[in-house]
Write a structure and sequence with these properties.
Structural class: alpha/beta
Helix content: 25-40%
Largest sheet: 8 strands, parallel, barrel
Strand content: 15-25%
Number of strands: 10
Strand order of the largest sheet: 3-4-5-6-7-8-9-10
Number of helices: 14
Shape: elongated
Distance between the termini: 59 Å
């Protein structure tokens, strides 16, 4: 295991700039046109990666579950199946979105929630994300391990034993863990930022933070504590109807978060010597002992006048 991981063209880990992921997820509301606009705004806001989600509802849950009434987004459908299918982008649409991201210098990432979606992500050549919901999906993790592809994996809602089992399954994959709390939004007292260095020390892996809290301050603090990745949901407007808009950052907020984290990064380090910028203050203001009279040379006893006078 290593504190640094290569994912495609990206180096992630200790001592490297924090990777900023704009989680577009399903905030495109099933519109490829809106998805392209979100990519543009993410690029302008300082993101390094744009992330989408892909699922096949029929392969992910039983018909009994997905055909139940679902009241959260009535404009998108009356059941889980109708809403989920309305929000899915096709493989062709995702491929065009990846080209768009590539053209802007952004990396393209997709969370795969089921085996058919995983195969699609592998075909696209996208960065693979394992969402918190999938950390207990044994068949999915085993197929990921078989593929050998690099993985970013969130840990929300998982026990320590479940995290350990998932890490063991993926021990031969380049792997990054993200501390995450599956509460939407997450109250400050549940964010538990010290989990970032804890997971890093326990597994010897790069560890980031996938946040669902309000505001940007705690995400900046996570980066200060060593999170090598910061992932936040991203939207054009929190007031839009959809599953995740309300817990997302708008472009100006995301940009401010990136700016603050970059400032923190520039201020990191250990001071081992006097900086040239300190010389003027040192010369003019540092206190030293001086005398306004003659000091006679000490006698042969070898004890200085200063020492002798202070016995």
């Amino acid at each position: 295991m290593s504190a640094r991981v290569d994912i495609g063209k990206i180096d992630i880990g200790e001592g490297l700039p924090t990777l900023m992921i704009a989680e577009i997820g399903l905030n495109h509301n099933g519109s490829a046109e809106l998805a392209h606009r979100l990519i543009d705004e993410a690029a302008l806001s300082g993101a390094n990666v744009v992330k989408f989600q892909k699922r096949s509802p029929a392969d992910l849950a039983t018909a009994e579950f997905i055909d139940q009434p679902f009241l959260k987004c009535p404009l998108f459908g009356r059941t889980q199946r109708e809403v989920r299918e309305r929000l899915e982008l096709s493989e062709a649409e995702l491929a065009e979105l990846k080209k768009h991201a590539d053209s802007l210098g952004l990396s393209f990432c997709v969370s795969a929630f089921d085996l058919p979606s995983l195969e699609l992500v592998i075909r696209l050549g996208a960065i693979l994300k394992i969402a918190s919901h999938s950390i207990t999906n044994g068949p999915l993790l085993e197929r990921v391990a078989e593929s050998g592809v690099p993985v970013i994996m969130s840990t929300g809602g998982a026990t320590e034993e479940e995290i350990e089992r998932a890490v063991r399954i993926l021990e031969n994959n380049p792997l990054i863990l993200l501390h995450c709390v599956s509460a939407y939004p997450t109250p400050d007292q549940l964010v538990c930022l010290d989990t970032v260095p804890y997971l890093k020390e326990k597994y010897g892996l790069p560890v980031g933070f996938s946040g669902h809290e309000k505001g940007i301050e705690l995400s900046v603090a996570a980066a200060t504590l060593g999170a090598c990745v910061i992932e936040r949901h991203f939207t054009l407007n929190r007031s839009m109807m959809g599953l995740d808009h309300g817990i997302s950052l708008e472009p100006q907020e995301f940009a401010q978060m990136v700016q603050n984290i970059r400032r923190v990064e520039s201020a990191r380090g250990i001071s081992k010597a006097i900086s040239p910028a300190e010389h003027a203050a040192r010369l003019n203001y540092h206190v030293a002992v001086c005398t306004n009279g003659e000091i006679k040379k000490a006698k042969s006893s070898g004890v200085s006048n200063w020492s002798a006078s202070n016995r």
